[in-house]
């Protein structure tokens, strides 16, 4: 396992982060989830990403239990705040001082830790002043509950505004967590250049497009039993946008390239994401420990320019590149 610095900080993270969105506490039984975490540790993954909203707090609980007994100093534990985790009351969401303060306290208890290495604003809050949000984050840093600050799915201007306040408050805004894969490249034209300028890294989610880029879904064939595409708890809704004939035709063309390199399609897709020097880590999920072990082999792979060109030509015209597609939450009802 290789490691990269997160933003302009001195914090190193593993090139692959183990994430438990859509799995722990919902899609995968707790004992299997723990086995996946153990597999991640065995292959050298030290970075773990979750969020309070995943499985309505249960993903944090499962991760906390799975990491119990590990040397805390050897881990980087990330979580997020924004979405509702309680009865969805009027202060149960967003990035207000009240919600952030209550959320970090809950996350620390569930994760069984005194601090998180990275606390991320899960989405931009259009209704709370950014100054309030950043001041609250700064207070958490000074209290020792949070070491570094990150965000998720923020656009270039939002990153610039937050970075300016972080500098003024003397805290480190080091990361953004966007969706990024061969099929979803909306960060490349604006977010990545701004991030390089600001000293911010990307920790990318869905680098294999919810599993589509692994090649497990074939045009004209039944969906694999037990796959994310058959998960009625959330996975099926997310992956449906990629289960189209033109996308599946393109994905099939990755197979001979991967084979020539001695890689699986998942490893090839992960390696492609990691060629972007602004990506500090790619988040992998798993429903079985052997998936973690296999995907970990993508770390440290260098793809030659000719291979990169072949891969990207396959998805020319299919990949989404519009920077305005950066995910934004709707206005909250009062």
Automatic annotation (TrEMBL):
GO molecular function, one term: oxidoreductase activity
Keyword Transmembrane helix annotated: no
Gene Ontology CC: cytosol
Segments forming domain NADP-dependent oxidoreductase: 15-314
Xref: Pfam families: Aldo_ket_red (PF00248)
Family: Belongs to the shaker potassium channel beta subunit family.
PANTHER family associated with the record: HYPERKINETIC, ISOFORM M
Entry protein name: Aryl-alcohol dehydrogenase-like predicted oxidoreductase
Originating species: Frondihabitans australicus
């Amino acid at each position: 396992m290789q490691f990269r610095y997160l933003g302009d900080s001195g914090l190193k993270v593993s090139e692959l982060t183990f994430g438990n969105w859509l799995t722990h506490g919902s899609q995968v039984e707790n004992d299997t989830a723990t086995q996946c975490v153990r597999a991640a540790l065995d292959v050298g993954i030290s970075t773990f990403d979750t969020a309070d909203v995943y499985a309505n707090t249960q993903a944090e609980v499962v991760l906390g239990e799975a990491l119990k007994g590990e040397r805390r100093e050897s881990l980087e534990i990330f979580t997020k705040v924004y979405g509702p985790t309680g009865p969805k009351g009027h202060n149960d969401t967003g990035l207000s001082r009240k919600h952030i303060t209550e959320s970090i306290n809950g996350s620390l208890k569930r994760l069984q830790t005194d601090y998180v290495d990275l606390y991320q604003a899960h989405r931009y809050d259009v209704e709370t002043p950014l100054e309030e949000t950043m001041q609250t984050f700064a207070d958490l840093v000074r209290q020792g509950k949070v070491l570094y600050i990150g965000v998720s799915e923020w656009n270039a201007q939002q990153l610039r505004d937050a970075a300016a306040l972080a500098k003024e408050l003397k805290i480190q805004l080091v990361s953004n967590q966007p969706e990024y894969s061969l099929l979803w490249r909306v960060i490349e034209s604006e977010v990545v250049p701004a991030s390089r300028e600001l000293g911010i890294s990307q920790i990318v989610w869905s680098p294999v497009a919810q599993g589509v880029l692994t090649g497990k879904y074939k045009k004209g064939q039944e969906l694999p039993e037990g796959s994310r595409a058959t998960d009625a708890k959330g996975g099926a809704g997310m992956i449906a946008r990629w289960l189209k004939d033109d996308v599946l035709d393109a994905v099939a063309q990755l197979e001979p390239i991967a084979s020539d390199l001695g890689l699986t399609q998942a490893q090839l897709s992960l390696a492609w994401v990691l060629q972007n020097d602004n990506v500090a880590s790619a988040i992998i999920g798993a429903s079985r420990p052997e998936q973690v072990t296999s995907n970990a082999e993508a770390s440290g792979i260098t793809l030659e320019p000719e291979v990169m060109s072949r891969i990207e030509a396959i998805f020319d015209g299919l990949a989404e590149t519009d920077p305005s597609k950066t995910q934004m939450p709707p206005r909250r009802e009062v």
